[in-house]
Amino acid sequence: MKNMLENQVAIVTGSGRGVGRETALMLAEQGARVVVSDKDEAPAAEVVSEIKQKGGEAVLFCGDVTEADFAKKITETTISEFGRLDILVNNAGLTLDNMIHNMTDEQFYTILDIHLVAPFRLIREAAPYMRDAAKEEIEQGIVHHRKIINVSSVAGIRGNVGQANYASAKAGVIGLTKVVALEWGKFNINANAVAFGFIDTRLTKPKEEAEVIAGVQLGIPEKVRNMFIDKIPQKRPGDAKEAAAGILYLASPLSNYVNGQVLQINGGSYT
Ligand code: NAD
Question: Which CATH number fits domain 9-199+240-265: 3.90.226.10, 3.40.50.720, 3.40.50.261, 3.40.50.1820?
Answer without folding.
Answer: 3.40.50.720
